[in-house]
Amino acid sequence: MPRAGSAWRPGATLATLRRRAEILATLRAFFAARDVLEVDTPQLGPVTATDPLLASVPALPWADDTRWFLQTSPEFAMKRLLAAGSGPIYQIAHAFRRAEHGRLHNPEFSMLEWYRPGFDAAALAAEVAELVTAVIGAREVRRDAWGSLFRAGVGLDPFTAGDADLRAAAARSAGDTVRGWARDELLDLLFSEHVEPQLGQGCLQFVDAFPAARASLARTLNDADGHRVADRFELFIDGCEIANGYHELLDAGELRVRMEADNAVRRARGEEAIPVDERLLAAMAHGLPPCAGVALGVDRLVMIALGVRDIDDVLAFSAPRA
Amino acid sequence: MATFSTNEFKPGLKVILDGDPCSILENEYVKPGKGQAFNRVRLRNLKNGRVWERTFKSGDTLEGADAVDKELQYLYNDGEFWHFMDPESFEQYTASNDIVGDAGQWLKEQDFCTITLWNDAPLSVTPPNFVEISIVETDPGLRGDTATGGTKPAKLATGAVVRVPLFLDIGDVVRVDTRTGEYMNRVRS
Fold it and tell me: Mind listing the domains of chain A with CATH numbers?
């Protein structure tokens, strides 16, 4: 928290802000050279992500108090452009997530999101590596399945271990409160405590084949051992998650089922359901071209390029200074 | 008693964890790309001083601990218990050797110290940062030797042993930093 008296000052130095501007120019040049179209979609909309683990910031842009939302990512609108025949597109947008605040989080942050018709997850991951290399320089690229990293880091098989063993392992850092946790929460905790901090040390570490329960809007498939996994990847650099890519789900019916399942979780927790985005579903029913898409945290990329530890150091005014 | 959610965990907030009162030292928010967010929290157990690391699901709550810091005057030690008094209400508090711990070697009768009370009973004792106490045991002083920079052990009236310059003698009053146990200067001889 800035000291009173200096609270008007930016968190980032002017040298950092100049470097940040250069990085944004590098990103735009990267896509211009590849004929990927820059787009600009609304950050304010009547619908938002249904994911029960994402909270949107509500907004009241109309005189009649109709509640809209600041977008948690530009994904839905960009997919409508893809269905309308846009071809490859990218966007650098502010995204908003309620109650996400810490060393790597600000409730308002910059997201680079792009979509590549005809790419699968591996082709898009290769392009992500090229883009990151253009900003931070070349590093070794590694690619591992989430399950094998989990087995190596935690010592349990995330697909076959019993809930009791996972719970006992989680209790070592989280104490008795894990008694009521769901299996997916135990897996999230164990991965974030025992695996993530080591990922991408000195390299670009892609992680793929996440559990199907964390598929979000990615396709699911069976891995070589017959486990249902999500066809998506995350990129880690120096222990920090920086990008999240999907081989995109195309089936509107399947997406409706997932969104309604999300809303069932919200209702069970006593929260309001989020209206399902019928315009996205209509666009997908019309036909989303087979594509892969990825979101990359621009502030975190700047942090890594500059070697700083706190997001406050790369933002002109982080939330505590806003 | 109020409950506090993980996003209200600020350094210094006192909460109950596993039945013990704790003070929050650090709170780090961590969230996977897709999935459950957590708060990785470091807390000091106010009963035994140990530092705990514990991870919570973001949004989980803990009960607040009714722990308050009070400036109390140290009265005397009866061999088993240490006796303190609130100078405003004249209310007296007693604390066992376990609770006073190492702070006891700095406590001089009539001095003020900070006592953390939980449910109105002393939980921990923090001596003032600086105390002035007389020397009761040390090797004879080398008068005039104020330049060589040598030191020797000296036992203070409260029981603490500190290293002091060679020129000091029994009966000298010295000022000591209780956080480091270091001699600062001679107050009077």
Answer: 14-138+250-321 (3.30.930.10)
pLDDT band of B98, cuts 50, 70, 90:
confident
* Cα of B14 to nearest chain A Cα, Å: 18
Out of A102, A175, A188, closest to residue B35 by CB: A188
User: How many CB atoms within 10 Å of residue A102?
Assistant: 18
Does A176 sit within 8 Å of B18, measured CB to CB? yes
- CB-closest option in A53, A103, A104 to B35: A53
Domains and CATH numbers, chain B: 3-63 (2.30.30.30), 67-126 (2.40.50.140), 130-188 (2.40.50.140)
H/E segment holding residue B116: strand B112-118
Facing A53 at nearest CB: one of B28, B30, B37: B37
Counting Cβ atoms within 10 Å, is residue B48 exposed (0-12), middle (13-18) or buried (19+)? exposed
Does the beta-carbon distance from B32 to A173 stay under 8 Å? Answer: no
3-state secondary structure of A235: strand
Q: Which residues of B touch A184 (CB under 8 A)?
A: 35-36
Local confidence band at B148 (pLDDT 50, 70, 90 cut-offs): low
Kindly list the residues of chain B whose beta carbon comes within 8 Å of any beta carbon in chain A: 7, 17-18, 28-38, 53-60
Determine the distance in angstroms separating the CA of B21 from the nearest CA of chain A, rounded to an integer: 16
Longest dimension (CA), chain A: 60
> What whole-number distance in Å separates Cα of residue B42 and Cα of residue B52?
6
pLDDT in tens, A116-160: 999 999 999 999 999 999 999 999 999 999 999 999 999 999 999
Chain-chain contact of A102 with B36 (C-beta, under 8 angstroms): no
- Label residue B115 by pLDDT band (50, 70, 90): very high
Cα(B174)–Cα(B137) distance, integer angstroms: 13
User: Does pLDDT of A273 surpass 70?
Assistant: yes
Interface contact A271, partner B, CB < 8 A:
no
Residue type, position B159, single letter: G
Which pLDDT score, from 0 to 100, does residue A165 have?
A: 96
Res. A1: pLDDT tops 60: no
For residue B145, name the pLDDT band (cuts at 50, 70, 90). Answer: low
Considering only CA atoms, which of B140, B188, B131, B189 is closest in space to residue B162?
A: B131
Task: State the DSSP H helix or E strand holding residue A284, giving kind and residue range, or none if neither.
Answer: helix A278-287
Nearest to B32 among A105, A177, A191 (CB): A191
